[in-house]
Amino acid sequence: MDEEMQSNTSLPESSSDATAQPQAEAVTDSKSTSTTSSKSSLLSPSSYTNWVRSTQRKLIIAATQGQRPPETLVSSLDEALNAKRNALVLSSREWNVYLAASIWRASSSSSSSSSSSSSSSSLLSDVDEVRAIIELHGEATRSTNGSALDLSAFVTYTDLVLSLHYAFEEVKSRPTNFWQDDEDSQWTVEGEEDLLQDWTGLKDGPKFLNLRHKATKYGITVGYSASTLPSILTRSQAKAAAVEAAWDSLLGESNVRALIREANSRAAGELNWSHLLWDSYRAFELHHLKRAKTADRIESVKQLFLARLKVPHRTHEATAQAFSSFLSSYLPPDAYESTMASLQRAYGAAKATWSSVEIFEDKVRGASPALGLNVDEQASWQAWQAYLRAAASRRHADVDLVSALFERCLSYLGLPESLATVQEGHAPNSQGVAAVKAARQKLPKSQRQDAELAERQALRQRRAQREGVWFDYLAFLTSRGGNKVSATQIIEVCDRATRTLPGAGLLWATYLRQLAHHQRSKSHIDEVFSRAFDGGQCSEEDKEKARDEPEDIKGSMVELFAGRIDAERQLLALDLATQQGLELSEALIQLPKDPNAFTEIFAMIDWALQLPAGERSAASLDKGLRLHRLASSWAEAAGPEMAQLADSIWENALTQQPTNAEVWLQSALYHIRIGNLSKARSLFRQGTGRGKISDTTQLLEAWARFEAMYGSGDDVLRAEERARRHKEKQWEQWAQYAQAQQEQYLNYTSAAAGSSGGAMDVDGGTGEAADESGTFATGKRKASNSVAAEPSASSSSSMAIDTAAGHTLPNPINGAESSKKGKGGDASQPTRDRENSSILVSSLPHDASMADLQRLFAECGAIREISDPVAIPGTNTAAGVVEFMDRSSIPAARTKDKKRLRGEEITVSLGWECTLYVTNFPASHDDAAIRSLFGNYGAVYDVRWPSKRFDSSRRFCYVQFTNPAAAKEAQGALHQHQLNGAEGALQVHLSDPARRKQRTDAHANEREVFALGIPRNCSREEVLTFFQSLGGTVEGLRLPESSRSNRLKGVAFVDYRTELEARQAVAELNERLLRGKAVKVQMADAEHQSSHGGRANSAGAGGGGGGESGGFASRAVKVRNLPLEAQEPLVQQLFERLAGGSSSVKKVEWTPSSSSSSAPSAIVELADTATAGKVVLLGESGQAIYIHPTDAARRQHVLSVQPLERGAAAAVIRSPSPGSASGSTSAAAPTAFVPRRTGGGRGRGARGRGGLGFVPPRSAAGEQKQPPAGSNATSSSGMDVDEGSSGSGERKGQDAFRAMLAGGGAAK
């Protein structure tokens, strides 16, 4: 026997002892009255996995040696799988092997009794064996992958029942299966798979069918090949053997109908694929109707259709057509109209429900394989997460549908493997096992350890995802279920949740609380708690996470104990309420004062805290002190005589966690509450004086408040002095950090300036070309009559499908660009080709929606994104954009041209054929002027403007008409047309993708990605390899380092050669693991660049220099109340009008909307302080009004314009304040826009002094360094206004300031 087998198996080598359990512990079969041992214990998932795999390995070895499988090993396999399904849950593969083995055993038994050598020729004559097989298949539908709605299990179950039924009834030509007669003809059979032989070595067992879905290309394993199932008694044979009644009660028409109907009823919530089950049910009923056409059968089939049409599902129209054919064939003509009329309301409601979720269903259908096992986890998780949130948050959510949605999600996500062995995904003794093991052994020790760490972290991430789904499911049932959800159902879901994730303390706690809430017995609660505690999975997960991530302990054991304590409180409160006639809420308040209840609860908490470390203890890992505070609060609530019991609680906490500042703080607060002030003062002094405590800021603040109330003057000074020294230390660290950041940035900019080549003109002109490295300097735009080098319509962040009025199609799968690799792993994500893959659909009905476009073009190909149709001014029509995944879908989409949608003939055109690239217009021309100019030649669908964030000289736009004819007419009329105020002739070109060139100034925000979560111990080569893994060309990589440790800060800026490579990196590398840590990858923006030391801003980045009036904060304003559809360029145009011209606005820092509920905002930097003040005053008077150009209602959005708070200004470098998370910012409270007198160390050339009014020095880039959080350093949020030449020290009021603005000069 090989070494691997000996190391993994827990079973004895002798066949006579092959049924012994691993770890000398028996697993009790809850469904059997007999046990194999007097001791029962819940094993870990890895123990069960090893038990099953070792038995499978022995069977495979026996088969390869030509031996007949020992009966003891077959029994052991059955026992292992049976034990695991009773204690935990089985995966889809484990269920399939288990079910096939049960059929093999039954057929082998019959074969042996009939002296037959082949199961294929055996005859199952025992009706009880067949009944047991059917019941086992039925049980699989209730717990596969922990879900009660795994459709693959349902299909296998119903196919088996129908196959046995047709064999019993001797049907020569049985109705076709869904894969033979699907409405869409989407399934093909690609062969058979012998899972039983592959995983156990047992031969001549039933084989599963390998199916392929034509549209999604996913392969699945489901259902049995009829030729491999054992034979059973036919009706005539059973009648001859005088057992017809028994067989008829199992496989007769009546019982089979009941089984199939019940399965269809439970699977109806699978909106995408439930028609596969229902089609077999319908075929069954029509088959029997043809055999005996009676009124009862006709009515039964009619009710079957009526019930189905009232349930939302994907194939509503096909079902309705089938029903219509049925009525025409079997009912008299006069009954047709009345039947259809009576159905209309319910049918319409079901269709409306489907329409409301169709977009989400398309997403999960595309991200998850239909009925499959090989799920693309990341895509599935994101799609399901968005769907679940939307469905569960609806005001009038359908409880049954949402519950089914949670079950479907759990089924599709599957079980996280135990990772007990690296071979778990491969059959035992397969080549895959050897390959994985050999590859692992070749790695150096450090790399092998890193790989194991990455596996553990990935497992924890998958567990956390599934734990979140289970918890949200239970929260929905308990909070929104109402009378539709019974206590039995909630407890059953809790039981499955904990058997699926036995290490999730939160789920165990929820289970215990629900048992108490629904008044289950104390013995039941104790039994559940014992399963969780004795199993040890919560403790093991805590220890593993403490080893890998010591700073991030979730505390499964803490959750478990908290749940058990809450359950006990509930039970005791119910007893007290019954005894004293109180309400439950009143009993809970009185509970601590009841001696018996107090003793029970406090003893339980104290027991949890006193468990020794390493023995499933929660105390040492409870960083938040949840149990300690609960014990203390419980003792204090019982009265003064009991409060002293908390002394030992806090003394032990100080011993267990001496470096946890929270322990010292809570201990001191406890002694304050009980009046022991001297002890509290001592704890404050000791805690703040210990050098190993990471952060004593809160402890120092609490000490200062304590001394201010209870201490003498000396005590107050002592506390303040220690707090001051702490702040000084923080300030020194802060200054060192800021200086290192500044030096690193200056080094980077110097290196970048040394390697930059000549400038390329944005709009053509005579700018120099880029050098070979692809680096560009900022070039000055020149007006030119020559043909401009046209930027790509897709290179700008403003593209038709992104910036059309209204919202884009909801995309829960990691953004619109998240197209994942194929299952084979060899297909890379297709390049996004917006111009050639987008169509413009015009002449739509005025009330058309995204759902209309989705239904209209769904059959043409995979859709990436749909824009909400926009009403076209002056017409009663609308237009929208549909972008496909690739250009191969365009020919099919063009066939929809001239089709009718609700009576309107629509027009379908290529997006770029309707789009014009326009440049060399006057600087005064804004969106309204362009629309007015081009609107003379046809209806304008959209005007897209470039961002001026990185180059304020950019002046071009894209004008998109609703049809190509209007675009061509406008081009012929306006190209080379001279406009008043323009330096050259107007340039108008068709936006042809074939002649586009990459916009040279887009590299700053279109080809740069920002990554967060880079492991700090990575080398530059590892990071570079990570970002080059997709084949893209990395032209620049910046890895900011910490000045104190010389280690990476955990962020990276990566420049790719093209925008498409950058966007592919975002789509493919986001959340991918690097050294076991998930890396967050997104497109870089000004926020990232300034916050983390990224690329410099080219224009006015620092502010406050170069002779400009005032610092950045004094000439910048914060803009809020923007509508969701607001666009950055249009906001800039609005403020240019308010401020008096394009030169008055330097730039707009844009924060786009992150969701449908969060509005965008902006920081607008004006030319000087006076202009900023003018804009604020105009905003206060309600003159800052934003009207979106495509809003047919012309709704006015009055914007909120406020001066930028001190400290919130954007600068080249942003650094976190001490005591806050890296990268976070803390905005100061807004203050009134009032001019203040300069001076006091703030005048020109003066240097601020320390103490009150101290202004931190500016960096070389002009940024103000912020003082440490909580320090006494102050700064005004008002705007700096220079005193002018008078040098007068008198304070000027608001009236003087308004007069200055009105007169355009300084106030006198």
From TrEMBL:
Compositional bias (Polar residues): 1-22, 1269-1278
GO BP: any one term: mRNA processing
One Pfam family per UniProt: RRM_1
Biased composition (Gly residues): 1100-1109, 1238-1253
Subcellular location, record wording: Nucleus
Entry keyword set: mRNA processing, mRNA splicing, Nucleus, Repeat, RNA-binding
Gene Ontology cellular component annotations, sorted alphabetically: U6 snRNP
Domain RRM positions: 837-913, 914-993, 1007-1086
Coiled coil residues, start to end: none
Functional summary from the UniProt entry: Functions as a recycling factor of the spliceosome, a machinery that forms on each precursor-messenger RNA (pre-mRNA) and catalyzes the removal of introns. Chaperones the re-annealing of U4 and U6 snRNAs (small nuclear RNAs) released from previous rounds of splicing, an initial step in reforming the U4/U6-U5 tri-snRNP (small nuclear ribonucleoprotein) that can reassemble into another spliceosome complex; this step involves binding U6 and facilitating the unwinding of the U6 internal stem loop, followed by base-pairing of U6 to U4.
Protein name, entry field: U4/U6 snRNA-associated-splicing factor PRP24
